[in-house]
Write a structure and sequence with these properties.
alpha/beta; 14 helices; FAD/NAD-bd_sf; FAD-bd; 2-polyprenyl-6-methoxyphenol hydroxylase-like FAD-dependent oxidoreductase; FAD_aromatic-hydroxylase
Length: 404
């Protein structure tokens, strides 16, 4: 039986473990956090990713966690509503697309693998030493262990990618903006409603999903000249406060609430671009390999599809990782490139550069419900996302081994 170590218990890691276990592999998942991660932001599951969820038999569990968002209101500095959109249109969703909190999706996947996958929390990979037919893995806490394969599913700043492929600077493509997300008290949000305040170069949103006690705050802004610099949370919070100093609406209160947020996150909006996603017995999946950035709206979907394609390719390869990894990259790369292309286009509508652009956008939003051909216009807006989300023909599942 092939022993596979997966670094990261977010979305791609547990999804990969689910499929590997089905195909007769023995996966172990190591996660730096002490427990499955909560928090995060809204993510969409659409197109091919929804087909993967169906093949896992998890659609009903996923749908039970749908955010239930109804409306998005654009407001001015005084909180007055300037324009309103249907939440489905605001998120570019059509048909059966599902919107779910990233933490809820991770918990569904972890629960689906809890009985037959080994999870090691509060630990991380510290070193990789390839050997004949495998990898010796050093951990930050646990004793050294040997695995046949190691898969990095550990996000934008992947440790596995750094150890196996070198410093991340050459692999990241910054898109010129930063994002911050964190929980805030529910009083800041309206039930199943998104509130957006947009000024030149900066956007702030607050939303509270169905049944949620807390709300989520989302900040988007042009990257500071010096980047985010320090990874220290206090320094990052100071950077965010400086970027939004003097803003109206609820911004001062949100920045004050930020100090107590247990899940504060700030980073550049970046993509991972790599010529190869494997090196010997080590490979990457999800954001670690091809993060499309939050601006694409497709990170979770790429992680789900990538996990399925990678596991199926390894199973079809009959134990030859070189063949499996090559097939995985061949199938996934056009899909990844199609979805990464969404990010630049989406960012242009998420963070506007001038007051004139903001006024024009709000005018169009106010007029849209009354324009002839409204449905055709909406379909054209959603078409690039729909096309990218379906830009892959999924392989048939590999046969499960006898007794699995």
């Amino acid at each position: 039986m092939t022993d596979v170590l997966i670094s990261g218990a977010g979305v791609a890691g547990p999804a990969l473990a689910w499929w590997l276990r089905r195909y007769g592999f023995r996966p172990t998942v190591v996660e730096r956090a002490p427990a499955p991660r909560d928090g995060g932001y809204k993510v969409d599951i659409r197109g091919a990713a929804l087909a993967v969820i169906d093949r896992m038999g998890l659609r009903e569990q996923v749908r039970r966690h749908d955010t239930g968002m109804g409306l998005a209101h654009f407001v001015n500095a005084d909180g007055n509503r300037l324009a309103t959109m249907d939440a489905q249109l605001f998120g570019g969703r059509v048909g059966d697309d599902v919107e779910i909190m990233r933490g809820d999706l991770a918990r569904v996947l972890a629960a689906a693998t809890a009985d037959d996958v080994e999870y090691v929390f509060d630990d991380s990979i510290a070193g990789l030493t390839p050997t004949d037919g495998g990898v010796e893995v050093d951990f930050a806490r646990a004793p050294r262990r040997r695995f046949d394969l190691v898969i990095g599913a550990d996000g934008l700043h992947s440790t596995v990618r750094r150890l196996a492929f070198g410093p991340e600077e050459a692999q990241l493509r910054a898109l010129g903006h930063h994002i911050a997300i964190f929980s805030v008290p529910g009083r800041f949000g309206l039930d199943r409603t998104e509130l957006m305040h947009v000024t030149p170069g900066r956007s702030v949103g607050v939303y509270r999903t169905a049944g949620a006690r807390d709300a989520r705050a989302l900040f988007l802004f042009r990257s500071p000249t010096g980047g985010d610099g320090d990874r220290d949370v206090a320094a990052q919070q100071a950077l965010l406060a400086e970027a939004f100093a003097g803003q109206g609406w609820q911004v001062p209160g949100l920045l004050e609430a930020m100090r107590d947020a247990p899940d504060f996150y700030l980073d550049s909006i970046s993509q991972v671009r790599m010529r190869r996603w494997s090196a010997g017995p080590v490979a990457l999946v999800g954001d670690a390999a091809y993060a499309p950035s939050p601006a694409s709206g497709q990170g979770a979907s790429l992680g789900l599809v990538g996990a399925y394609v990678l596991a199926t390719a390894l199973a079809d390869a009959g134990g030859d990782p070189a063949v499996g990894f090559a097939d995985y990259e061949r199938r996934m790369r056009p899909f990844v490139e199609a979805n990464q292309r969404l990010a630049d286009r989406n960012l242009r509508g998420m963070v506007l550069g001038s007051t004139a652009q903001i006024r024009f956008q709000l005018l169009m939003l106010r007029l849209m419900p009354h324009l002839p051909g409204r449905d055709r216009m909406i379909a054209r807006v959603a078409e690039p996302i729909r096309r990218a989300a379906n830009a892959i023909t999924l392989p048939d599942p590999a046969p499960a081994p006898r007794g699995a």
